[in-house]
Amino acid sequence: MGMRPPTGLPSLSRRSRILLVTALVLAALLLVGPRLTDAYTNWLWFGEVGFRNVYTTVLFTRIVLFLVVALVVAAIIWLALLLAYRSRPVFVPVSGPGDPIARYRTTVMSRLRLFGLGIPLLIGILSGLVAQSSWVTVQLFLHGSSFGVKDPQFHLDVGFYAFDLPFYRMVLNWLFVAAVIAFFANLVAHYVFGGLRLSGREGTLSNSARVQLAVLAGIFVLLKAIAYWFDRYALLSSTRKEPTFTGGSYTDINAVLPAKLILLSIAVICAIAFFAGVVLRDLRIPAMAAALLVLSSILVGAVWPLLVEQFSVRPNAATKEHDYIQRNIDATRQAYGITPDKVDYVDYKSGGQEPPAQQQADSQTIGNVRLLDPNLLTATFTQRNQLQNIYGFPDTLAVDRYNINNQIGDYVVAARELQPANLADNQKDWINRHTVYTHGNGFVASPANKVNAAPPNDPKQVQQSAGGDVTGGYGYPVFSVPGPNGTTLTTVSDLGTPVNTEAIKVDQPRIYYGPLISKTDADYAIVGSNNQPAREYDTNDSQYTYNGAGGVSLGNWFNRVAFAAKYAERNILFSGAIGSDSKIIYNRNPRDRVTQVAPWLTADSDAYPAVVNGRILWIVDAYTTLDNFPYAQRTSLDGVVEDSIDQTTGRVLPRKEVSYIRNSVKATVDAYDGTVTLYEVDKTDPVLKAWSSVFPGSVKPESDISPELRSHFRYPEDMFKVQREMLARYHVNDPREFFTNNAFWSVPNDPTQEGAAATAHQPPYYVLIGDPKTGKAQFNLTSVMVGYKRNYLSAYIQAHSDPDNYGKLTVLQLPDSAAQGPGQTHNQMTSNGAVAADRTLLTGTNGNKLKYGNLLTLPVGNGGILYVEPWYLERATSSNAPSFPQLVKVLVSYNDKIGYGSTVKEALSQIGASDLASSALDLPGTAVTPPTQATTPPPSTGTTPPATGSSAKDTAVKQLDDALKAVQDAQKSGDLGQLGKALEGLQTAVNSYEKAGS
C-alpha cells in the first residue's frame, strides 16, 4: 500500500478570496477603527487643554516599549527556530504511512517565511502589547532620583526600590518569557524537522538539538540566578507577617535571605552544568543539576524558613520581631507623612482654670457649630435653588470657608450643574440635549451655622442665629448673610442675581464642566453660533452662545466624521446646528480631566467648587503613590477610604494598593472653559520630582498659587482617611506594645446611619474650631478615634487647612475611658426620654422620616468633649409635593450629660453648660432676630409656674392633653412652624407633669 502524498492548505477560489479579504478588512476596522478614532480625538483634546506634551510623551514611550519588547522577544524566538531549521537532519526517516509529522513538515517547508517569521512576530506583537502598559516603570527608571533615605537592611537609597528595582524586574521577566517560549519553539521545531524523535523506548535527540536545548535551559537557569539576587530586595516588602506588619521579618532576613543566596549559587552551578552538557554530550549532568535546583528550592527556599518560623520565631515572636517591627514603624511613618515633625501629639486632660485664649477659642468653636449636614441637604438645595428641572446638585455637598465682611465662616456650597438625568420629554431630543441644554448656572452657598426658622415659602421670616440657634422649631438653610450698614447680601450667585448684592461675587456663573454633567455615556455638548441666533438655554428669557476657550473645533468634516464615529451619532454629521464656528465640549468631569492630563496622579474622590477671583473652579486634590516603599505598611486605598457616605452615594473611590502617598499636587479645573492647572504643593516629594522631569512644565511651581486660591485649599479627605488608619496603629512607639495591639485605636462606625452604612467608618468632618493658643477659628478636618475594638474615645485628630499651618496634624490623646465614643453618645442621646417621645410623635404612623445629621465632636473647655448632633425631619407628602429634610432639634452631650432643645443655646443650658451656651451669643454678627408670629396662635407653652399638690397634678395632666392635641392638629395642618411651637409646648407640659408628680 503506497503512502498518501502529503497535502498542504486547500486553495480558495477568486470569489472566496475576495470575501475573505473583505471580512478581514471589516474585522480590522471594527478592531482598530475605534482605537484610531480615540487616538485622534484624544490628540485634539490634549491640544485643547494645553497638555499635548503629556500625550506625545506617553504615546512615544508606549510605542518604543512596544517595539523594543516585540523585537527582542521575536528575535530570540526567531533565532531559536532558525537554529533548529539550519541544524535539521538531512535524511528524516518516516515512521509509517500515517506519520502526521511528515504532513506538518511538508506544510512548514512549503511556507517557511509564514511560519519562520509569522510565529515570532505574532508572539512578539502580543508581548509588546502587554509590555507597553509598563510605560510608568520605564519613565520612573529614566527620571527617578534619590529619596535621601536608606533602607535599614541593605543601606540602599529608597529611590532604588521605587524607581530602579521595578525596571530591572520588568526586564528580567520579559527575558524569562522569551527564554521559555524560545526553548519550546526550538523543541517543537526539532521535533518537526526530525532532530527529536520519540520512537522507540528512549527516543533519539540529535547533537544539534541537544546543544541548543541545553544552552537555552542554561540561559533560563542563569536568569533564575539573577532573579534570586533581586528577590533579596523584594524581601523588604514581604507580606509574611501581615496583618501584623509589612516588611522583612526575622524569618525573611535570617532564613529566606540566606536561602536566596544559597539558591543563587546553586542556580549558577546548574547553569554551568547545562552549558557543560554541550561539551560532555551527557544529558545526565544537566538533569541532575535541574533536580538539585528543584530539590534545593523546596528544602532551602520553603521548608527551612517554615521550620525557623514555627520553632524559633513563634514561641518568641515579641522578642524576635522587635527590631523588624521598629523598622516597619519608622518606614510607615515616613511613607504616609506621619513623622513626628508633621504630627503633634497632645495629652488632652481636664483640670485647672481655663486661660483667656481657651475661653476665646471655645467662643469660636461654639459660635461656628455646623448644624447643616452637607450629606442631607441636597434635596433642600434642590427644592429651594434648582430654578429649572434641568439643574441639580450632587448627592453630597461640599464644605468650604469664606471671609465675608472680615468674618471667617464655613459654608455648605454647591455648583448648580446641568443634570442630564433630569431632562424629560422633548428635552431629551438630540438637538435639545446636546446643543440647547449645555451648561449649569450658578454657585450656591449657605452659612453652615445659620438657619431659617420660617417655612421656605415665607422668605420674610428669616432668623440669623449663633451656633445654629433656631427658635421656630424648624430650620432651613439660609442663602444670605448680613452686609455692611445693615444690608443683606445673597450667597447665591447666578444670572438672576444682581452682581452688587452678591456676598460671594461670581463674574461667570455658567458651568460647562462638572461631575453631574458628565454622568452619562455621551457627556458632550456642541456649542457655537454658526451665524445663527443664540440657541443655548440660559434663562427663560435669554439664550447664550459659548465664547470660552474650551472645546474642540467641528469646523472641518474630518473632525465631524471622527466625533460621529466616536459617539456613534450621525446627527453630528448632518445637523444644521453645526457649522464652521461650532465646537464640541467633552471629557467634562473635573477628576477625569486631571487624571487624563496627569495619568501618573491618583485623584481624590471628592472634587469641590470654590469661587476664586470671580471664577468657579473645581479643586481636585491629587496624590503621588508608590507600591513598594521598603518596610512600609501596604494598604488598599478603596478599602481605607470608603465610609458611610460612600455606602449611600456610590461615590467613585480610588482603587489602588499603595505603601507611599503624598498630596503633592493641587489641581484646578475652570467650570466655564475647562482649563486644567496643576500646582506643586510639596517640594520634598521625590516622586513628584521624577514626574516633573518626565513632563517638564506640566506642574506649576507653588509660587504661582494666588493667596485667594490658597485660602480655599482643604486638607484632602482621602489622604486624611489613609493617615488616620495608619495613626490608629503607628502612633505607638514601642515595638513590644505594638505587637500586643493593646494601645491601638480604631476608626468608629457611623452611629447616625442605618443598614449597611451603619457598619461603615464614620466620615471625617470639616469644622471651624478655635485654636487654644491664639483663640482664632481654624478650618480643620477632624475625626475621632476609639479604643481598639472598644467604644470609648481615645483620640481626636485634626488636620489643619489654613495656609499658615497647612498640613500639620494635631492628635489629642485622651486618658483611657475618659469620654464616651460616638456610638455610646449617640445611643445615650437618642434614648433620652424627651427625645424618644418626640421621635414617636413626629414619625408615628404618618410616614415622616427622621434623619440624624452628622455627629460632630468638638474639643472645648479645658479637656472637655462636646458632641453636637442635629435632628432632621422629612415630612411625608403626596406624590407630587416636594419633600426635604428640615432641622428640628439639636442634641448635645457634654461631660456625659445630655441636652436637647430647639437651639444649641437651649440644649447646652439644660446640662448646666451656660458658659458654653453664652459663647454662641457673644460673637459679632450672630444676634437673634425673633421670627414673625404665625397666624395660628401657638399652643400653651406653660409659662405659668406649675402648681403643687393633687390639683397641680390634675392641671399638669390637662396641660399635657392640650399639648398632645395641639401636636396632632399641627401634624394634620402641615404647618411646620405651628408643629415646632406645638412640640415646644409638649416638652414644657411634660416638664410640668414631672414636677407635679415629684
The assigned structural class equals alpha+beta
* Largest β sheet strand count, sense and barrel closure: 6 strands, mixed
Overall spatial form:
globular
**Poorly predicted runs of 5 or more residues:** 1-9, 454-473, 921-950
Q: Name the average pLDDT.
A: 83
Q: Classify the helix fraction into a percent range.
A: 40-55%
Rg, nearest Å:
36 Å
Percent strand equals: 15-25%
Task: Describe what you observe in this structure.
This protein has 998 residues and is of the alpha+beta class. Among the domains are: 65-196, no CATH class; 206-320; 519-586, no CATH class; 590-813, no CATH class; 936-998, no CATH class. The chain is 43% helix and 17% strand. The chain contains 29 helices and 37 strands. Strands 3, 28, 29, 30, 31 and 32 form a 6-stranded mixed β-sheet that branches. A hairpin with a 6-residue loop joins strand 1 (196-197) and strand 2 (204-205). Helix 5 (135-143) packs across helix 6. The model is unreliable at 1-9, 454-473 and 921-950 (pLDDT under 50).
Summarize the structure.
With about 1000 residues, the protein is α+β, with helices and mostly antiparallel strands. Among the domains are: about 65-195, no CATH class; about 205-320; about 520-585, no CATH class; about 590-815, no CATH class; about 935-998, no CATH class. Strands 3, 28, 29, 30, 31 and 32 form a six-stranded mixed beta sheet that branches. Strands 21, 22, 23, 26 and 27 form a five-stranded antiparallel beta sheet that branches. Strands 33, 34, 35, 36 and 37 form a five-stranded antiparallel beta sheet that branches.
